[in-house]
Write a structure and sequence with these properties.
four-stranded mixed β-sheet; alpha+beta; 4 strands
């Protein structure tokens, strides 16, 4: 086969023209499209990486926030438990104090009730004892007992301390017009004279004496000098005994 150089040259020229056409009208646009596509993919990848990083940061932030919330919740719960325990302890202490006061109050009331009952019982016993003693002494009382009480009164008058004697003399000096002597039984002249002489000597008075009988005295005398009264009789002694026991 014979080589035709002209044809060969034309084929080469056609090929070069085809290559030029492909390069300028097909290959370059394709490269541009590929480049744009690559840039778009890279941008998408970058955006995806950015989103992934943002999402990861948000996840870490969320987890950290959850951990902080858990710590805060636990701290709040612990604080609340402590407050509840403190309030409970305070309430219990206040309740104990209230119960203690109520128990103490109840004990005081009970003691007062028992003391009142005891005093009432003692008063009843003293009243009954006084009544019994009164009945007994009413039977046993007589002129002899009254004379003994008179002798006891005169003996005590002569043995008074100076201070009491001075007070009694001052009171006797202020007596209005008489010294009243009450007795259960009539006093004979000798007894009256002994009584008047002793009182006049001890009290240094010249006031006249007035005598009367008082059966309620049971036995003994009651000498009244103004606001002062000398008692040496069973009625006053029993009454003083009952009043002293009541006061005690």
């Amino acid at each position: 086969m014979e080589l035709n150089w002209s044809t060969f040259l034309l084929e080469i020229i056609n090929f070069l023209i085809l290559v030029w056409i492909l390069k300028h009208f097909f290959y370059k646009p394709v490269l541009n499209v590929i480049a744009r596509r690559r840039r778009s993919i890279e941008k998408s990848l970058n955006d995806a990486n950015t989103l992934h990083e943002d999402a990861e940061a948000l996840r870490v932030q969320y987890e950290n926030r959850l951990a902080e919330w858990e710590k805060e919740r636990q701290a709040a719960r612990t604080s609340l438990v402590k407050e509840i325990e403190t309030e409970r302890a305070q309430q219990l202490e206040a309740l104990r104090a209230t119960l203690g006061k109520e128990r103490k109050k109840a004990r005081v009331i009970e003691q007062r009730r028992l003391e009142t009952n005891r005093l009432r019982t003692e008063e009843m016993a003293l009243a009954q004892g006084a009544q019994f003693a009164t009945r007994l002494l009413s039977v046993a009382a007589g002129p002899e007992l009254e004379q003994r009480l008179l002798d006891l009164l005169l003996k005590e008058l002569t043995a008074l301390p100076p201070k009491q004697l001075s007070t009694l003399r001052a009171a006797a000096g202020k007596t209005a017009d008489r010294i009243l002597v009450a007795s259960t039984y009539p006093l004979n002249d000798a007894t009256r004279l002994s009584l008047e002489n002793t009182l006049a000597s001890v009290l240094e008075v010249t006031t006249p004496f007035h005598y009367e009988q008082d059966k309620e005295l049971l036995a003994g005398l009651r000498v009244t000098m103004g606001s002062w009264v000398l008692r040496a009789n069973l009625q006053d002694e029993l009454k003083s005994f009952a009043e002293l026991a009541h006061e005690t």
